Prior knowledge:
The protein is an alpha/beta fold. 53% of the residues lie in helices and 9% in strands. It has helices spanning 3-19, 39-47, 51-61, 85-96, 127-145, 162-173, 176-181, 187-200, 202-216, 220-244, 263-272, 311-323, 340-353, 388-406, 412-432, 444-447, 455-472, 487-496, 499-509, 512-532, 540-563; strands at 27-29, 35-37, 68-74, 78-83, 111-115, 149-153, 277-279, 282-285, 300-303, 330-334, 361-365, 370-371, 440-441.
Amino acid sequence: MDLEKLLSDRLAPAFAAVAGGPVDPLVRRSPHADFQSDAPLALARRLGRPPRDVAVAVLEHAVLDDVCASAEVSGPGFLNLTIADRTLADLVAGLAGDARLGVPPAAAPQTVVVDYSAPNVAKEMHVGHLRSTVIGDAAVRLLDWLGHRVVRVNHLGDWGTPFGMLIAHLADLGGAEAAHELSMGDLDDFYRAARVKFDADEAFRERSRLRVVALQGGDERTLRLWRLLVEQSERYFLTVYDLLDVTLSEDDFRGESAYNDLLPGIVDDLDRLGLLVCSDGADCVFPPGFTGRDGEALPLIVRKSDGGYGYPATDLAALRQRTGELGATRLLYVVGLPQRQHFAMVFAVAQAAGWLCPPVRAEHLGFGSILGADGRMLRSRSGESVKLAGLLEEAVARATELARSRNPELDAEAAAEIGRAVGIGAVKYADLSTDRRKDYVLDWERMLSLDGNTAPYLQYAYARIRAVFRRAGTEARRDAPIVLAQPAERALTVELLGFGAVVTEVERSLDFHHLAGYLHRLATAFNAFYERCPVLRAPDELRESRLLLAELTARTLRQGLHLLGIRTLERM
Length: 572
Ligand code: ARG
């Protein structure tokens, strides 16, 4: 049982008695006590009574004696609540025997489709795909751990008119042979060369146009070339996923082309439902509430005037399949914020068509950009967009170098292992520790620093605890009685008891910076504890208690980092 919930459960009946109806006690951590409740303020306004009087009345009704050491009214009418040490010790003892660290599995498991990563065939993954991959994978890990049925969907951009040009270029180069030479990391060069030819050469443009027609018409030779491009790209993306240590596999690719056969049905059904409007030769839906700059209604174009279907139609078909065939009750789309309107319109049309009905929910988990040190969109020195693989290799190289310089005795293998866990961890953590809606600056020094809200700081705290156990020569006794002698061990205990609440909140919000912030507070509380409370040199009873607190901290850090997709190391 987490502390917020414990206090809420105790306060709720008292608030109800004072208010004459249910009131959320709004219990949260406080800098002045362990927890505070702000709810008397709003309630006082509603009742037209002085806030402090309301707060006093709530306290009179609340049964808190057995769990709180003190409960007082403070300031304009907050409740300050300090938990009794006995309660803390009992609850943390309960955690020790709980493999799930106080995080119960979901009471009502859902089928959740997570649409993430989704790079485009024959193009490099860029940093936007990095964010999608990292955030989406954290969502997958967390929801899976909570017992939901999670379906990963890698909505690869593998269809559309650019493929005419790409296939024509591949054919010019000699087809299959050239595809095999199209080695890893040359994707952008390939794309650019095709583009240059397309812009310069009328005959090539014509060949490209014919290839689009052939591709859509199912011409076997053209499809074979298309498949080569897709396979080659997928193979490349898998090497990036491997380097990035994410759970996406080849089974999760479900590109845009997978929905081709469903597209005519989407148009027919929208038409039958009376939602389709022909506008400038294109089949459109005008969902209510979407207007352009001049106030004119905005269309979602389902079929273009040339008869082709585009990105929106594909997303409608995908959504319908997810809520229908896959039986999903929660749909997540981890895609950059520039596509916010696209998703809002797709969801609105799907609702109008009855393909997305409560309790099923679709959420666009939008995110901002990664910026360079100059505060502008991250670019390579030559001004192109940064290749993700190169960025990850740089992270690992820098972290390996730092590990070596900190500890010159490390052998090459150990340094490489640390470099990989820390480098990749730092990249992921930099992403997950900021509010995803915001842009953030890629700053190697800060990300790789052992101080501050960084992956290395957390990984180091974990490794430090493991070192204590190596020196102790034993693991903690899970049934050791907890003694809270010092303020620092009390503070650590309060943090340990907060894991459940934060995971439950992130399950709903998917705001991973809250989990990151929690882990950072936990590691900081541990470091303060470790500075002030001797562990191995303490008298027996204290030593056992402190070893158990240390072990719980390590397990919580490890599990929390694991949910973020970040590895822990036994030594650093
Ligand atoms: N391939 C797209 C891009 O790179 C992202 C696709 C996101 N998923 C979706 N269902 N539309 O921008």
